[in-house]
Design brief:
Number of domains of chain A: 1
Number of helices of chain A: 11
Radius of gyration of chain B: 25 Å
Order of helices and strands of chain A: HHHHHHHHHHH
Structural class of chain A: mainly alpha
Number of strands of chain A: 0
Oligomer: heterodimer
Distance between the termini of chain B: 93 Å
Distance between the termini of chain A: 45 Å
CATH class of the domain at 33-144 in chain B: Alpha Beta
Shape of chain B: elongated
Strand order of the largest sheet of chain B: 2-3-5
Low-confidence stretches of chain B: none
């Protein structure tokens, strides 16, 4: 087949599947949370309540898309788009299977880090443009939280880069043919997991939107589809981090018997469920606790991980 | 850190526990016989209305949702000409039932009164009257009350002594 056509098909396929999965996650999250809290969750609309998502989508499309008169209008409109764009762009470099990958660049991980840094702008600008003290507080929290957790997210990932000898995600997956990186890089995996949760602003790191303190944090003033964009962006982020966890530390598409696509989906779903379990079980820390955790524990630990991994790799190569 | 993992594990174990939700329209919850739900007007064992239109329920009602008009039949027996309960106001407190001297007004374990039109929540007497005695099967106010009605003179009620002869000299 024409390679350009194939690329376009892969691109559209990834886009559609990822977006569908992101909205499906709303259903999955509600059902799983309910399961762990001894409830049922949405089970009325369609089989197992699956059409609940559709009903919610229809509702959110027909809601009044209100922009407060005191808001900074262009920025207010732009903010929710940024998060969806940046997260979707990151999916371009993720190798789902050897075939299903849009772009195999040699700077894939750097691209991911850059895009997630840009994603912070969405939240910060959303909080700023709302011109509301709670939104601003949420935006400020998001900025400081995501910036500080991004530092050691990058450092934690460097372990896998050193072991694989490349920034390309495909090379990283292929380097895990004999052993998943979660074994030699267990500390790195834990650090990346924590940083990933903080990046997606999921509980226990959902301080930017902390309902009990800040109304709804940075998206207090958002309604209708703009709120929906933030929502979808958050779930896209969850999928992205889950895929990256399985790509970087759990061998990506590699696994016995089953075809590669099944393996990557299974691993990703596992981490998504873990994210939801965290939400079901964890309380929210105080903001100073969050920051001191990040700087006093995570950063030194990731530096240690970096140094030890580097030393071991050097010694092995000798 | 250990406690975090522990709580994750404990929450995960809840997967295997029964769910508390009662799936209401499919699965009706148990309502106790004395549950305070829809209000009815009951009849005495003879099939006559128990209500004597004394207005005590309307007085007791904290939200003033009961209104009625008293009248008398040709034999001197009081009954409500019309009786109206506005269930969109009623708070189902049961004070009317406590106030009722004849056990006429009673609350029943029925809560399914949803309506699309608010006006339909105003129940008239024909909606309220039931063809039974409700919670007190044998009670009949007129049979124990010392009031003269048709077929029952003074002193003929249950456990009632004949009236004293005002003109007799003996104590």
């Amino acid at each position: 087949m024409n390679p350009v056509l194939l690329k376009i098909i892969v691109l559209l396929g990834i886009l559609i599947v990822v977006l569908t999965l992101a909205s499906g996650l709303i259903w999955l999250e509600r059902r799983l949370l309910a399961l762990w809290q001894d409830r049922y969750g949405p089970n009325r609309v369609g089989p197992f309540g699956l059409l609940q998502v559709l009903a919610d989508m229809i509702k959110i499309f027909f809601k009044e898309d209100w922009i407060p008169p005191f808001a900074d209008k262009p920025v207010f409109v732009l903010a929710p788009a940024i998060i969806v764009i940046t997260v979707l762009l990151t999916f371009a470099v993720v190798p789902f299977t050897p075939l299903v990958q849009i772009a195999d660049t040699n700077i894939a991980l750097l691209f991911f880090l850059g895009m997630s840094s840009l994603g912070v702008y969405s939240v910060v600008l959303g909080g700023w443009a709302s011109n509301n003290k709670y939104s601003l507080l949420g935006g400020m929290r998001a900025a400081s939280q995501m910036l500080s957790y991004e530092v050691f997210m990058g450092l934690a990932m460097m372990g896998t880069v050193m072991l694989a000898g490349s920034f390309s995600m495909r090379a990283i997956v292929e380097a895990q043919r004999h052993m998943w990186f979660v074994v030699p890089q267990f500390l790195g995996f834990v650090l990346f997991l924590i940083a990933g949760i903080a990046e997606t602003r999921r509980l226990p790191f959902d301080l930017p939107e902390a309902e009990s303190e800040l109304v709804a944090g940075f998206h207090s003033e958002y309604s209708g589809m703009k709120f929906g964009m933030f929502f979808v962006g958050e779930y896209l982020g969850v999928i992205l981090i889950s895929v990256l966890l399985s790509v970087l530390y759990f061998g990506g598409w590699q696994g016995p018997f089953l075809p590669p696509i099944v393996w990557i989906v299974l691993k990703t779903l596992f981490f998504i469920c873990f994210f939801i379990l965290l939400r079901a079980a964890m309380p929210r820390p105080r903001f100073d606790q969050l920051m001191s955790w990040g700087w006093k524990w995570m950063l030194p630990l990731s530096l240690l991980n970096l140094a030890v991994t580097g030393a071991v790799v050097l010694a092995m190569r000798r | 850190m250990w406690s975090i993992l522990q709580s994750l594990w404990l929450v995960l174990l809840h997967m295997f526990q029964p769910r508390f939700t009662v799936q209401y329209p499919d699965e009706k919850p148990y309502l106790a016989p004395r549950y305070r739900g829809r209000i009815v007007l009951s009849r005495d064992p003879d099939g006559e209305e128990r209500c004597v239109a004394c207005y005590l329920c309307a007085v007791a009602c904290p939200v003033d949702c009961i209104s009625l008009q008293a009248t008398e039949d040709p034999h001197g027996r009081r009954y409500p000409d019309w009786f109206r309960i506005n269930f969109s106001r009623c708070i189902f407190c049961g004070l009317c039932e406590e106030a009722c001297p004849t056990y006429a007004i009673q609350l029943t374990p029925d809560i399914e009164m949803g309506e699309y039109n608010r006006q339909n929540l105003v129940y008239e007497k024909e909606n309220l009257l039931i063809n039974g005695t409700g919670k007190y099967p044998d009670y009949s106010f007129w049979r124990v009350a010392g009031v003269r009605i048709k077929d029952k003179d003074k002193g003929q009620a249950e456990n009632e002594a004949p009236p004293a002869d005002l003109h007799a000299l003996t104590p």
